[in-house]
Amino acid sequence: MGLRFKFNVVLVLVFMVGMSLSASVSYQLLQGNAKQEVLRDAGLMMEAALAIRGYTVNQVKPHLDDRLNETFLPQAVAAFAATETFNALRVKYPEYSYKEATLNPTNPRDRAVDWEADVVNAFRNTATLTEYTGERMTETGPMLYLARPIQVKDPGCLACHSTASVAPASMVKLYGGSNGFGWKFQEIVGAQVVSVPASLPIKHAKHAFLAFMGSLAAIFLATFVALNFMLSALIIRPIAHMSAAADKISTGDLNVPEFRRGSDEIAVLGHSFNRMRRSLQKALKMIER
Questions:
Q1: DSSP H/E element including 39
Q2: Structural domain 3-14+206-288, CATH architecture
Q3: What are the backbone dihedrals phi and psi of residue 52, each rounded to the nearest 5 degrees, phi first?
Q4: Strand order in the sheet with 97-102
Q5: Whole-angstrom Cα distance, residue 149 to residue 113?
Q6: Where are the CATH 3.30.450 domain residues in the chain?
Q7: Is the pTM of this model over 0.90?
Q8: How big is the chain by its Cα radius of gyration, in Å?
């Protein structure tokens, strides 16, 4: 087993350990960054929904109050305005979604499905929980969602959601008297849920991971070749010359040129070899006399 083989075995083992550690750390880091990117997009959508709600309540609804006494206009409801705005966005970006998932909604389309109901109940069961994130699989791939609780903080909301008898007649006429009632002040009745596709960022993270590992492998290959060249030029070749010279001397051929001078360990070995050859020559001459 030659010196070069031993050196390369050690080098490959070190590289494999390094590659394994680098792969594990970089993969987790890139996947984590991809998910954080998705959640940032979800957070931006959530803030946009809140802005739409605030605009509807503060700048649209006051101008429609007189008309609402006669005809109920869903467009004046903050939740409806936010939902419709994001429904328009979904025409171009169907993977993105926004929903005000409610356990007992006035509008049936806002009723929470099973997984959304679990999110709402998580908020109801933990008063300190103000934000909830998770991942679910869909037909189009993995989706990350961001949810925030919908809580009855404004007593004015109960004018439409306490009982059907006190709710605006125009609203009861439009949606009926069975849904969206029985709400209580400070009760968590639903959750704003933003769903954002995670497949594309995760795909980009995988591509970045493969590119990183490919670059690392290329660097190792270049380093491997360079180290082998240096090993051959600086260590193996001088030692091979010394070995060949020792073989010649052992057969009586003392006309071996001296090795180069220098200050590294191989040169020091060469100096020692030169002294040994000269000493052997002197000893042989003394014997011949």
A1: helix 3-55
A2: Orthogonal Bundle (1.10)
A3: -65, -45
A4: 97-102, 188-197, 141-151, 132-138
A5: 15
A6: 24-198
A7: no
A8: 39
